[in-house]
Sequence to fold (272 residues):
Amino acid sequence: MFNQRIEVKTPDEVHAMRAAGLVVARTLALLRDAVRPGVRTGDLDALAEQTIREQGAVPSFLGYGVPPFPASICASVNDEVVHGIPGARELAEGDVISIDCGAIVDGWHGDAAITVPVGEIPPDVSELLRVTEESLWRGLAAARVGGRVGDISHAVQSWVESQGEYGITDGYTGHGIGSQMHMDPDVPNSGRPGRGPRLKEGMALAVEPMITLGTDDSRIAADEWTVVTTDGSWAAHFEHTFALTERGVWVLTAEDGGRERLEALGVAFGGP
Fold:
């Protein structure tokens, strides 16, 4: 039976979510351009909050959770997987930074993440970023009305495992999204196809692979938020929010709605 706790949106509500998704997309584009050696992660956070508010939106992350998250973005550097707190840290040549951003417009949420190289990075780290981002798109491309959440999970896992020896961070997943940032169902980054809640028109999910060069084990740092790998291996994190429409997959946090990447994978674009 369909899980009634999973929020199903009307077409008008999906369009409302698109407004929040575009705020996130445009904010991340500005942050990507701002990443360079010597920039502090706190400077990126200030730019993000300013940009989100100038677009008539509210940062999703600021004040979220327990203890309240103190910033508008998560800024996770090198071996920090997710939920890094921005501050005085200066980025250095050869670092990578994962930037997770959320925004609310008229009560509807958008959530996405990118991992950005700081100048030149080692080839194995560059390959990690490529594998992780492509696994996100493979997961998105596996979503279809009548399918299952496990189809997305399996697509992410299968792609990562086909590319080499990588860790799929254990215990952290994507999620439902809409009138709240985190909702049912969880969207794991590994699993079996044909399992989990059934996918239905009007559902919106955030898919977010978190992949490492080493272990799948992690721990939470003393700040009670930052997730780091236990073996010190570097990590990458990419995320998009998408909705299922009668036409297919609409990536709400991609400027083009995901059309280019989805059609390259042979998947119907679900946007207008």
